Amino acid sequence: MDPLALFLLLLLQCFQWTPVPASDDISWTYTGLVGQSEWSEYFSDCGGTSQSPVDVVTTQTKYDPGLLPLTPLGYEQHGNRPFTLYNNGHSAVIELPDWMGIGGLPWLFTAVQMHLHWGSGGPGPGGSEHTINGQSADAELHVVHYNSELYPNMTAAMTQKNGLAVLGILIVLGEETNLAFNNILNYLSRIRHANQRVLIPAFDVRSLLPKDLRSYYRYNGSLTTPPCYQSVMWTLFHERVQISKAQLLKMETILYSSKSEDPERILLQDNYRVTQPLNHRVVFSSFSAESWKELSSGEVTAVVIGVMCGCVALAVIVRFIVKTIRRYFTLLHRETVVVNSSTSSWDVLHSNRPAPMQRMKEPEKAAENKQDTDLNSTTQGGQKEEPSPPPPQLEP
């Protein structure tokens, strides 16, 4: 046989027997050699046209009045069995019991697990996977369910259409500590390295969700990590959940994506996928656009200042009106008192006043006064005192 032909035959056999690594054996990461920009090379579904997460542009969503409020089933009935919390090298995952599920969907979906996505605390935005009008949150919680009406388990359902239903909860910074999230965050120090797991006390999973489960966005998408199966019915709640800065810092800095035996420790940070093209898909909303409006920070500031100015102006107007009314009633009261006083002094006492005397003419009055003076003088000067008669003589 020709040596060249023999060489080519041996080379061909070598290629035929070279094992191709299965996708499950590929160690993918968010950055690096098998980072998310290369996922589609190793996981074909990651290059599909219905990938997640997406940016929800609220002005382009379509209101669907048929979207019902979601109903958590058994979320509060955690029982006495502890939950399992583990570090899979990509996130902190909590396994959920199969008696938990979600209602309000076309089928019954049974809970499987929930996990978190976060950033690195850097100056740039990032942390959540989904964004609203281009704005990302600080973190995001996913609660994963499988269609238990159509499929026997998670493995069978995850590759089929409408096989999965995932709840997305956006997490932002707040002033107060979220005690519900402490049920997870307080135990992260026990699973610092990949493949570590620990049993934690069971808790009310409903307490992690927003209070308003009626307002949400709905679209068809995929898993946000390899193998990126396009089998997910997504529900992204409009209301955000708040955690404290200390809680977010613990989430961002305490876990490693490396194993405990690895020589180098690699922090588990920025474990979120960038938003994917929406393509032909439509994002539906369970609420009308008029009932909720996304405002920028500048618009919120303007609204707050406008409301405050309006309140101050209203207070000034009310005070002016009150002072005017008080002044009017004060003047009215004074006029009433004056009128009453005048009426009582004139109308009541006028009948008791003495009649006016006639005035005499001045000459007559003078003459009369002169006559009276002369008469008094004559009486006093010319009148003589007569002697009293002698006492009578008594006879002997």
Keywords:
13-stranded mixed sheet; 16 strands; elongated
Order of helices and strands: HHEEEEEEEEEEHEHEEEEHEHH
Mean pLDDT: 82
Number of strands: 16
Oligomeric category: single chain
**Please, how many helices?**
7
Instruction: Kindly estimate the percentage of residues that lie in beta strands according to DSSP.
Output: 15-25%
Q: Extract low-pLDDT stretches.
A: 9-23, 292-296, 343-353, 375-387
Gap between N and C termini, in Å? 225 Å
**Broad structural category:** alpha+beta
Shape by Cα distribution: elongated
Roughly how many Å is the radius of gyration?
50 Å
Fraction in helix:
25-40%
The largest pleated sheet is described as:
13 strands, mixed
Explain what this protein looks like in three dimensions.
The structure is a single chain. With 396 residues, the chain is α+β, with helices and mostly antiparallel strands. 28% of the residues lie in helices and 18% in strands. Strand 6 and strand 7 (109-118) form a beta hairpin. The protein is elongated, with a radius of gyration of 50 Å. The strands form two sheets. Strands 2, 3, 4, 5, 6, 7, 10, 11, 12, 13, 14, 15 and 16 form a 13-stranded mixed sheet that branches. Strands 1-8-9 form a three-stranded mixed sheet, with no helix packed on it. The longest helix has 51 residues, at 297-347.
